[in-house]
Design brief:
The complex is a heterodimer.
Chain A: H1 6-14, E1 20-24, H2 30-39, E2 42-47, H3 50-58, E3 63-65, E4 80-86, H4 95-105, E5 106-114, H5 119-128, H6 152-161, E6 165-172, H7 180-184, H8 186-189, E7 192-198
Parallel strand pairs in A: 1-2, 1-4, 2-3, 4-5
Antiparallel strand pairs in A: 5-7, 6-7
Chain B: E1 2-3, E2 7-8, E3 14-15, E4 18-19, E5 22-25, E6 35-39, E7 66-67, E8 72-73, E9 78-82, H1 114-127, E10 135-139, H2 141-152, E11 159-163, H3 171-185, H4 203-217, H5 220-226, H6 245-260, H7 263-275, H8 286-290, E12 296-302, H9 310-322, E13 327-332, H10 346-357
Parallel strand pairs in B: 6-9, 6-10, 7-8, 10-11, 11-12, 12-13
Antiparallel strand pairs in B: 1-4, 2-3, 5-9
Helix pairs in contact in B: 1-2, 3-4, 3-7, 4-6
Classes of the chains: A alpha/beta, B alpha/beta.
């Protein structure tokens, strides 16, 4: 598992063996490849980038090339055990709609994003008075793909408003170091946030 | 290759005996597990790759994909490319002599469907000692045959390669075919399909049919780029002659096609397209049909293809994912319309090759 980046390792711990998984914005397919080999998982990756799609084919990962912003209409309700979306939420045109779609298609959904509430981001903005640029978010404001950045608190507020049930939360840093600070103040010290959301129960 | 066993057809008729011509490329390995069946589309035939002679202006229709180091790598795979029944390039078809009457079949040649083609292809596989194809591949109508193979003989192929295809024709697709057929059948030289006996050819009808078909193979952008409003001569003549370059091009396409293709075959191939609808057996539920499928699928479409648009391929993908089958689907940027599957394109060739490289064969 060591070849996977820390947040993906965490996701692998959450996934039940033998599950059917849909990985949205799956990149080069590393997560699905690992899950297929080690957790007997079946499923598909969804990705738009041509080079990434090619990497998936080479890894023998089922890949569907399509634009996430166009919706998940090709997938039936509750047709996957898990719908995963890592580090793509912030790049979507309508992340709220995609999250709704994830909860429709998957019994459980796992989503990860860079926490914009990180103290470094806050410090950068307050001292420089400019949009934070870092190793993790290296693009400038005008050419960044990350058009909907949010913080841990933003996301949790959003889930509460939409009656989405958070069943698991993980906060990691890019180097996978355990940190008490991160546990105590995730919105200030967490670099990457992971959430597992459960199927939406119909309101009574 | 000659076949003596009776072939029962979907239309209810039978073919008592028939001949199939085919080309092969590469070498069948000892376990016969490296064979790839390549299925041709409407106007192509068994000549899929390479040149027959130095005089050939063009190589086989899928030469960009078949050969050493190409996606269907002939250093690895043994490729079988047959000419379908009903065609006019050597396999038994309307131009062949009907043994019952000792004259050409003409319009009496039984109607063919994709199901029938898959049946004769299966017999061909048997004769060649191929128990299971490593893959069955094709574009457009050829892709439909690959799809049908996976449904009809689930254990007899490991991979289905379906490119620029559709799960069935739309009303618009059928409408274009209907107009093409009308053009042929209304040609005074058609003689109700018996034109061989009158020593005539309904070439004007066939030309118009091909011109119409050709428009649907190209994209608006591709035609615009190639011709725009360019004139054939320097000025407008204000008459009904050929004035624009695009008119001249279409006429040339129509004429060259009419000189090499048989009108009855064209009618029959368009009908085979119209009839194709594998979901029908499950009341239109394609994913239910895919429940029995075992092959892994590779599907691809092209952005400017409006004959079989990406949405049509996605219908197949969606039914496959609903049935929890293995499938990869790619959508390539191209301005070549439907013909894009026959045109060199790095992304397309690279992805197709990557997929084929993962197909396991014994050495």
């Amino acid at each position: 598992m060591s070849e996977l980046r820390p947040e993906l390792q965490k996701i692998c711990e959450w996934i039940e063996p033998g599950s059917r998984v849909l990985d949205l914005g799956c990149g080069d397919g590393a997560l699905l490849e690992w899950l297929q080999k080690n957790r007997q998982v079946t499923g598909y990756g969804v990705e738009i980038n041509q080079q990434d799609v090619l990497s998936c084919l080479k890894k023998n990962v089922n890949i569907i090339q399509t634009d996430l912003d166009a919706g998940l209409t090709d997938f039936a309700d509750a047709s996957f055990d898990y719908v995963i979306m890592t580090q793509a939420l912030q790049a979507l045109h309508r992340p709220d709609k995609t999250l709704d779609e994830m909860l429709r298609v998957g019994r459980k959904s796992i989503v990860t994003f860079p926490n914009f509430g990180l103290w470094k981001c806050r410090l950068y903005l307050s001292i420089n008075g400019r949009m934070p640029v870092s190793k993790a978010l290296p693009a400038q404001w005008y050419d960044t793909k990350n058009i909907h950045l949010c913080t841990v608190n933003d996301f949790e507020n959003f889930c509460a408003q939409r009656s989405m049930t958070i069943s698991k939360r993980g906060i990691v840093d890019y180097n996978h170091r355990p940190s008490t600070l991160m546990k105590l103040w995730p919105n200030l010290f967490g670099e990457v946030a992971l959430y597992q959301l459960d199927e939406k129960k119909n309101a009574i | 290759m000659h076949f003596d066993e009776v072939l029962s057809l979907v239309c209810g008729k039978v073919l008592e005996q028939y001949d199939i011509v085919y080309e092969t490329y590469g070498t069948l390995n000892a376990k016969a597990d490296n064979a790839v069946l390549v299925c041709h589309a409407l106007s192509a035939d068994h000549h899929a790759a390479g040149y027959h002679s130095k005089e050939d202006a063009k190589p086989g229709w899928w030469d960009i994909c078949i050969g050493p180091g190409k996606p269907i790598d002939t250093d690895k795979f043994f490729v079988v490319s047959p000419c379908n029944l009903g065609h006019c390039s050597g396999s038994t078809g309307p131009r062949s002599i009907n043994p019952d009457t000792s004259i050409a079949y003409g319009k009496d040649f039984p109607m063919m469907t994709v199901v029938d083609w898959v049946n004769y292809q299966q017999r061909l596989a048997d004769k060649l000692g191929i128990k299971q194809w490593a893959a069955v591949a094709g574009g457009s109508l050829g892709g439909m045959q690959a799809l049908q193979w996976a449904i009809q003989f689930p254990d007899k192929l490991r991979h289905a390669i379906v490119i620029a295809s559709a799960p069935k024709l739309s009303a618009q697709n059928i409408a274009f075919n209907a107009v093409a057929r009308q053009a042929i059948m209304n040609d005074p030289d058609f003689h109700d399909g018996r034109y061989y006996d009158f020593d005539t050819v309904p070439s004007n009808g066939l030309k118009v049919a091909r011109m119409l078909g050709h428009i649907t193979y190209l994209s608006d952008d591709a035609m615009g780029d190639k011709f725009g409003r360019e004139l054939k001569n320097d000025q407008l003549n204000y008459d009904y002659g050929v004035e624009f370059q695009v008119e001249s091009y279409l006429r040339y396409q129509g004429e060259s096609f009419a000189s090499r293709f048989d009108a009855n075959t064209y009618l029959l191939m368009t009908k085979a397209l119209d009839y194709f609808d594998p979901a029908e057996e499950e009341g239109g539920d394609l994913s239910a049909v895919f429940e029995k499928v075992k092959a892994k699928f590779f599907l691809a479409s092209f952005t400017t293809d409006w004959r079989f648009s990406p949405e049509r391929s996605k219908e197949i993908v969606s039914a496959l994912t609903d049935a929890n089958r293995d499938v990869s689907y790619l959508e390539f940027e191209s301005n070549h319309g439907h013909d894009a599957f026959l045109v060199e394109n790095d992304d397309y060739i690279g992805a197709f090759k990557a997929y084929m490289q993962n197909i396991e064969v014994s050495t």
